[in-house]
Amino acid sequence: MDLKKTNAPVNTVTYNKTLIEERTGNVYEAITIMAKRANQINSEIKKELTEKLEEFATYNDSLEEIFENKEQIEVSKYYEKLPKPHALAVQEWLDDKIYYRDTTKD
């Protein structure tokens, strides 16, 4: 997942309800699908962030090393500035990038 190429908003945005429910015909079903996708995105971001921060892990508690690790701070700031997982999921939904199927209809 390339987070730099997304056009999801960083701030809160009001969406048209008819656009959200257009594909499913039910706003609650659409929100449930987007919520599940947001959980997937969140776990992907968390895994990626954990892997990057493990590179900076030190196993001794030196106070000087904690304050001097500027690379770790920059990585953390980058992830703080990203759009939230729910905003990414809504944008994917509106761009028709989320695949879903209704198992009760099969």
UniProtKB/TrEMBL annotation:
> By its UniProt entry, which InterPro entries does this protein fall under?
Pol_omega/Rpo6/RPB6
Q: Which SMART domains match?
A: RNA_pol_Rpb6 (SM01409)
A GO BP term here is: DNA-templated transcription
What start and end residues bound the annotated signal peptide? none
What does the record list as coiled-coil region(s)?
Answer: 35-66
* Pfam families recorded: RNA_pol_Rpb6
What is any one of the record's Gene Ontology cellular component terms?
A: DNA-directed RNA polymerase complex
Single GO MF descriptor: DNA-directed RNA polymerase activity
Which UniProt keywords are present, listed alphabetically?
A: Coiled coil, DNA-directed RNA polymerase, Transcription
Q: Does the keyword GTP-binding apply?
A: no
**Sequence intervals crossing the membrane:** none
Output this protein's name.
Answer: RNA polymerase Rpb6
User: Which source organism?
Assistant: Flavobacterium sangjuense
